[in-house]
């Protein structure tokens, strides 16, 4: 793993010697470039010592050897990681300003880039910063989202540099083998909304994070990914073909229309089991007495339709349970005719619905059960995909 670490001038720069150490522990060779402002927060000597290489601050190469540092480095580097990335540096990257060693290198760099922003919450939410981050994302730069918590200025909110283990994990994921290359994977994510009248609907607490993480991880592992998503506030993962739907019935139709050629289907969406039999044309008035009776009817069972299709893809179902997790999931695995089922204890508020973390049991048809310990949804997604790769029928 040949990594160039770019350090910019934010308080979180003090954490970068630890980051370099952890990256080296994971087997990386790390070369560091600092902006002049970064040197106010961390000493070049610390980074040179922990990385085992001289660091670069000056824009111009060594006149003695004639070496142009940024081009030479670009030939060597497999990944550019910028951590922490300030609002200023993100803006420079978004428009292509190259006025110091790091911003020049960012343009010379030839392979993938990961950016870990860190700044005060109000700066992070400034429309210009949000737009610049989106510009980078749309260009294929992987953003390692900042964490929420206490900030340097005594305030609280989103903007803290992602935790070092999270950054190291994202770097390691970048170097994973492309073991889904040539595979077509369909993922469903998010809730469905079932309209009662023009202004009201039934839904559930799914944020879409689990399904989007699976789509993202599968794409990074080389798959051609189609994501059928219920309503969420999440940005479409880059390089993933997204179809947005609202109701269970629309999700059913979108999945079936996209099913031809899919070898793997992963159903992380929380689909409404029942929907109003009819949607009122006008807003239901409250002057209809003390009770309101709605008739619900069963939504189409998407998994059953997939399982009945021919050729039948490899099917991964999810089971959201509030009791008897393993037992209920095993029963669902058989009833839904899935190959694997991911059992999610949604009674625990720290995992499952709308949380950044998850912890699941994955049960296979051959009876094996694998526990995936509590970790980020991207890590859980990759572990699920490891099990998918393990259980896929040989071509
Ligand atoms: O979105 P997040 O906030 O990240 O939360 C993730 C999650 C908790 C939603 C996810 O991990 C999860 O558990 N998803 C499945 C939720 C669910 O609807 O489970 P279920 O036990 O009700 O359904 C079982 C399976 O049948 C699911 O794969 C579901 O997609 C599928 N189903 C359900 C109903 C239906 N009409 N058709 C289906 O195919």
Q: Which sequence of strands runs across the widest sheet?
A: 12-11-8-13-16-17-18-19
Helix content: 25-40%
Give the termini separation: 31 Å
Largest sheet: 8 strands, mixed
Helical/strand content category: alpha/beta
**Mean pLDDT score:** 93
CATH class of the largest domain: Alpha Beta
Unreliable residue stretches? none
What's the alpha carbon Rg, rounded to whole Å?
Answer: 24 Å
CATH superfamily of the largest domain: CoaB-like
CATH fold-type name of the largest domain: Rossmann fold
**How many helix segments?**
13
The CATH architecture of the largest domain can be named as 3-Layer(aba) Sandwich
Strand content: 25-35%
Say which molecules are bound, naming each kind only once. Answer: ligand PMT
How does the overall form come out from the CA principal axes? Answer: globular
């Amino acid at each position: 793993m040949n990594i160039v670490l770019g350090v910019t001038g934010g308080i979180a720069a003090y954490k970068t010697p630890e980051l370099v150490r952890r990256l080296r522990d994971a087997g990386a060779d790390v070369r560091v470039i600092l902006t002049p402002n970064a040197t106010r927060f961390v000493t070049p000597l610390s980074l040179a010592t922990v990385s085992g290489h001289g660091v670069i601050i000056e824009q111009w190469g060594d006149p003695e050897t004639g070496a142009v540092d940024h081009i030479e480095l670009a030939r060597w580097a497999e990944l550019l990681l910028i951590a922490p990335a300030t609002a200023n540096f993100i803006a420079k990257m978004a428009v292509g300003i190259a006025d110091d060693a790091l911003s020049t290198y960012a343009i010379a760099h030839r392979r993938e880039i990961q950016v870990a922003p860190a700044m005060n919450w109000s700066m992070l939410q400034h429309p210009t910063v949000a737009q610049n981050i989106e510009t980078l994302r749309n260009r294929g730069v992987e953003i390692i989202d900042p964490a929420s918590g206490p900030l340097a200025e005594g305030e609280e909110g989103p903007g803290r540099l992602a935790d070092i283990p999270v950054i190291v994990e994202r770097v390691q994921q970048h170097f994973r083998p492309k073991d889904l290359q040539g595979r077509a994977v369909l993922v469903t994510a998010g809730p469905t909304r079932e309209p009662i009248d023009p202004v009201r609907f039934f839904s559930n607490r799914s944020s879409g994070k689990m399904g989007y993480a699976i789509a993202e991880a599968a794409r990074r592992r080389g798959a051609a990914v189609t994501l059928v998503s219920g309503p969420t506030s999440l940005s479409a993962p880059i390089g993933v073909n997204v179809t947005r739907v609202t109701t269970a019935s629309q999700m059913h139709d979108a999945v079936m229309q996209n099913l031809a050629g899919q070898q793997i289907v992963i159903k992380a969406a929380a689909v409404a089991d029942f929907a109003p039999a009819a949607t009122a044309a006008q807003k239901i008035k409250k002057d209809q007495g003390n009770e309101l009776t709605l008739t619900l009817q069963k939504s189409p069972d998407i998994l059953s339709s997939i399982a009945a299709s021919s050729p039948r893809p490899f099917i991964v179902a999810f089971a959201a349970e509030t009791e008897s997790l393993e037992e209920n999931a095993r029963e669902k695995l058989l009833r839904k005719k899935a190959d694997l089922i991911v059992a999610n204890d949604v009674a625990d508020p720290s995992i499952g619905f709308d949380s950044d973390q998850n912890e699941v049991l994955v049960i296979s048809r051959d009876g094996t059960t694998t526990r995936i310990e509590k970790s980020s949804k991207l890590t859980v997604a990759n572990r699920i995909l490891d099990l998918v790769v393990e259980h896929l029928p040989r071509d």
